[in-house]
Design goal:
Immunoglobulin-like, single chain, eight-stranded antiparallel beta sheet
């Protein structure tokens, strides 16, 4: 009976931990911009991951007049070529959104490009997909 109670209590902790897990979040500077990137799964997974990109100018105002591109890649490994993907982010409710469709588990390099006229600002980070 004691084992049963311990198992049930442990299961409750695991389930509530999963239910309240936060999105994967990265905060970075890109030139003059403050950028917050959130991915709906933490850690990101093989398959579709929804990404939201919030961009603020130095005065704290949301930037909504840029073209935003998401590039993600995994370097070549023995017996496997490099993988490179690109997608455009779309403006939705004051944030840019994109779907990052990760093809295999492992470490991925992600670059967010913010293009305004002739000027391009970049945010680089990496994620470990499971």
């Amino acid at each position: 009976m004691k084992k049963f109670i311990v198992t049930v209590v442990s299961l409750i902790f695991v389930i509530t931990g999963i239910a309240f897990a936060k999105d994967y979040e990265v905060k970075k500077k890109a030139g003059d911009f403050d950028v917050v990137i959130t991915i709906d799964k933490n850690p990101p997974v093989v398959g579709k991951n929804n990404m939201a990109i919030g961009i603020k100018d130095p005065s704290g105002k949301s930037v909504t007049d840029s073209k935003v591109k998401v590039e993600y890649s995994m370097p070549a490994m023995p017996g496997m070529p490099a993988m490179n993907y690109k997608t455009d982010a779309e403006l939705k409710d004051g944030k840019y959104t994109a779907i990052m469709d990760i093809s295999m588990a492992g470490s991925w390099n992600v670059t967010i490009k913010i293009i305004q006229g002739e000027k391009t600002s970049r945010v680089k980070f990496s994620v470990d997909a499971s």
